Structure formats: structure tokens, C-alpha cells
Amino acid sequence: MPFEPPSVSVIIPVYNDPRGIRMTLDSVLDQTYPETDYEVLAVDNGSTDETRDVIGTYCEEYPDRVRLLVEDEIQGPAAARNKGVAEANGTILGFIDADMTVEETWLEHAVQSMESNDWSYMGCNVEIYVEEDKDTLTATYNQIFGFPIQKYIEEQHFSGTGCLFVRSEVFDEVGNFDDRLFSGEDQEFGNRVYDAGFDQHYQPAITMYHPARSSLPALLKKHFRHGRGRAQMQRYHPSRVQKPSVLNPRNYLPPHPIRFYKNVTDVASLSWSDVILLFFIAYMKRLSATAGWAYEHFGEGE
């Protein structure tokens, strides 16, 4: 019998990022996978700029391939992805973040990996690149410490959702992403998938591309959000994470200087001044995450 390509739904959550959603839509619509066998679901999560209008132009140009979905009630990537899951027609769901790009063989090779290996949950490699005129030390830091997806899958049993493929039956069995979590919903979902007995796999041959965060405030904002998500995980899923004390000095100490030096110099040629500045960025990142954790526990997030 001839091979029947499985149907695929590509789900892209987006909030206030017209440039990013253009980049991603252009990329995922230029695929070698048969056009009739995949759909693209762009889920706007309450944008207040022209993001929704940008998606609308793609819906007009590709009416049979692109759909605009709206999640206005719950703010957060988990809720946006859940909206996509609920509306998806595919037997395989592929998740990618707005501002990421892929090669034209991305879907074809992802489906080949899933089908030939009978995999249900697969994470892909993520390569962080520095955009033109955005070559900052923050971008360098982001490149060095970006997305260790293989480590996440092998040691923590999850893949980041910006580079994830999952069969629809997995959601039928374990449920959706926990939309109460401001961040960390990918880990909580992946842990449920693992506990349910599904194998989890990393496919290094499939690379997805993410621009480096070049702004220090943007990087710190991200980790403040991660800190909030960690606190929410402790509240809603206490068995999955250790609950640290606010008095634990590890929350406020800088990284171990020798280990940090080895980590950064193993992957990049850096001057001493650059290493010191990167160390400062790492310390600020840790303090920002701790501040987010404290905010969620004791501040307005409570």
C-alpha cells in the first residue's frame, strides 16, 4: 500500500509579536511536506498591537492552510497552546514559538522520525543565533546557555514546547498543558507524559532556529517569569518540585565561579572582561528568578 502521510497541526502561540509571527509563518508555510496534509494554527493570546491583523493576512493568502485562533480569557502560552490542541485536526501536533524558524524539510523529517520509530513525544534541537546588529554580551550568554533539549528530556523528562512534536492521543490520555502555570507548563506536561509510560525522545537531526535575546532587561524579564512559574509549580504540583525556603542562601548567591568559567570558555573564546560581565549577567538572572518566585509567593501573584 502507498504511504499515507499523517495529518499534522502546527500550533504557534503568539502575543504582541507581529515581526516574530511573520518570520515563523513564512517558515512553516514553506515546507516539503504535502500542503494538503498539514494545517497551521496561529493562536493569538490577547495581543494589543497588529499581531492579529498580520495573521489575518496569511489566512487570506492561505485560506485552506492557516487558521487564526484567539485565546483572550487566559493569558499565558499554556492556554494558547491548549486552544490550538482543542481545534487541531492533525494526528501529530507540532509546536513552535513565534519568532522561531525552520528548514523547509522540518515537517517532513519530523514526521519521518515519528513514524519510522513509532514515537509519541519528540523534542528537536534548537540553535540560537545572533541577529544582525544585535551582537551583545547578553546574546552571547543566551547562545551559551540556551536550550539544552537533550538534557531536559534525558534528565528532567520534558522538552521545551517551542520544539516539540506530540501525537494527539497523548493529550487524550494525559490531558492538556496546565494553564495555571505562568511558566514551566512544558515541564509539568512532559512529566505527566513520562509518568503515563510514553517514551520520550530527542532528535538532534532536526534543528529549529531561535534568535538570541540581545537585551538584558528582556532576558531578566524572562527569568522573572520562570521564577513565577516555579512558585506556581510548587503551589499546584508540590510533589514535582522541591519547595525551597526563602532563607536558603543558594537563592541569592552567585554561580560557582570556577564551574561558570569552565562552562563559558569551553564553548567560546572570551576575554577576561567578557567572562566577568557574563558572570554578572548569570548572577542577575538568578536574582531575577528568585524575585519572580518571591513575587508569586508573597506579592500580587499570591
From TrEMBL:
Domain Glycosyltransferase 2-like positions: 9-174
InterPro entries on file: Glyco_trans_2-like (IPR001173), Glycosyltransf_2 (IPR050834), Nucleotide-diphossugar_trans (IPR029044)
Keywords: Transferase
GO molecular function: transferase activity
Protein name according to UniProt: Glycosyl transferase family 2
Species whose genome carries this gene: Haladaptatus paucihalophilus DX253
